[in-house]
Amino acid sequence: MLRRRNVFGTEAVDVKPHDPKAGTVSISVEHAPVLLPRETPVQLIDETGTTHADDTYAMPSNERLAAAYRALVNGRRLNDQCSALVRQGRLAVYPSSHGQEACQVAASLVLSENDWLFPTYRDTVAIVNRGVTPEEALVLLRGDWHSGYDPKRTRVAPQATPLATQLLHAVGLAHAATLRGEDTVVMALCGDGATSEGDFHEALNFAAVFMVPVVFFVQNNEFAISVPLAKQTHAPSLAHKAIGYGMPGQRVDGNDVAAVLAVLGEAVDRARTGGGPTLIEAHTYRMQAHTNADDDTRYRERDEVKAWVDRDPLTRMRAYLSAAGAWSAEDDSALAAEAETMASALRDALNSEVEVDPEDLFRYVYASRPPHLDRQWNKLKDELERTAAFEAAGGAGAGTTESGTKEQKS
Ligand SMILES: Cc1ncc(C[n+]2csc(CCOP(=O)(O)OP(=O)(O)O)c2C)c(N)n1
Ligand SMILES: [Mg+2]
Fold this sequence. Notes:
Shape: globular
Bound molecules: thiamine diphosphate, magnesium ion
Number of helices: 14
CATH topology of the largest domain: Rossmann fold
Strand order of the largest sheet: 3-4-5-9-8
Mean pLDDT: 90
Number of strands: 9
């Protein structure tokens, strides 16, 4: 018999360990209701900056909220700078988390140094907040061939583009850490669309059965490119899926950084003290298009977007901190200067030209290169050599030489 923490309190409950031979189950039906999320998302500060006391989740300290607000403002500046760099041709693509910064910031702030973060393509602000530099984070999105950072340095896995694949990796790493006796919790991020993937199911099922210390954090931003949530699932909420796996689920206002910090923090504590995984759904909104390659005016009304702009995560936190006497106009100026310094350094870094080796396109996938890739490389090499020879002979200007002009006339 194992002694595990009750999912919503410190009181322990006796549960039988899963033993397939004995046919026992890991949690009894009478405990099932504590796994259900709330009917309405947890909210500690509403869009006007007004507080709502909660019996389960305590308000974080003003010091912690001020640190979170600084990260929100820097995160917004990073998002908007990256979107501008796409338009300037300096980044190939940027999936912005503009509007989702409260989730981004809280997901990294609740982790300790030994913990790991498993992000998606949209989570650049979260990984920068954990210590990856903006320049490193953007190497992939500017079109280089690999991740620009060492995952082990900051304990941030590479940003995953194939949906939900990172959830399995996250569970594997967390399980391995437990077997080694390490004090490591893993935060695994995904979007609402990713919850329809088979990998999502497999990751949650494995994590629950083996009581793996992982927090699944779904940023429900209402869309998977142009597919709205209503076409994604018929579940009462995404957090309700947790009970099907036997883990607690919770819903939180994803634009209230105080609530996201409290709810994620509680789940991280539970994971760290042997209480197993949790599924958390943040209700937020993708305020901009999916990426620069998407036109969101084709599938959603401007009024809908405007209603979410009114629930901006930055505005309410500024209002709360100011009313609490924990933020001043001078703090605004200092923070704006800090954000501009970061944005300017990022522009400089991305305005420099990179030297890439075209053969890297064909390296590192196979130990020895198969014939079809060899043929492709030889074709490209030939093309590059002919271009180099053309440029060495004067390039486009070669046609203006005397002989070239004569040839053209003839
Ligand atoms: C396995 C897989 N299938 C399809 C895609 C194409 N795709 C890229 S982003 C995306 C939408 C994902 O939506 P969601 O999980 O809600 O994340 P969001 O982009 O809203 O952050 C899709 C379908 C993919 N990247 N991977
Ligand atoms: Mg989404």
